[in-house]
Structures are given as C-alpha cells and as structure tokens.
Amino acid sequence: MPVEVREMLIKATIVQDLNQGNANNGNNGNDVSPSEEIIKVCVERVLEILKEKNER
C-alpha cells in the first residue's frame, strides 16, 4: 500500500564561522562544506520531485 506524504517540514540552522572568512582569503572559492553539499543535493531532489509532480 503506497504512503502519500502531504506535508514536509524542512528545518535548517545556519551557523556563521568567523574564522572561516580569514582562512578562505587565498582560496579560489571552489571549497564547499559538507552541509552546503547536503543542502544542494536536497534542493535538487525536491525540484526533481516537483517537476515529476507537475508532469502528471
């Protein structure tokens, strides 16, 4: 029996690391933190689900 989710709650906490700004001055900006990568993957998946839902 399929289960349908009618509501989804997404909670995110952003913590600013004051030392990170000083450490990244020499970097080219390609470093992505693990939490940013997780957020990126989640957003892509949600957009895929919404696209599939609209195509039906």
UniProtKB/TrEMBL annotation:
Top-level taxon: Bacteria
UniProt-listed Pfam families: DUF5908
Protein name in the entry: DUF5908 family protein
Taxonomic source organism: Sphingobacterium daejeonense
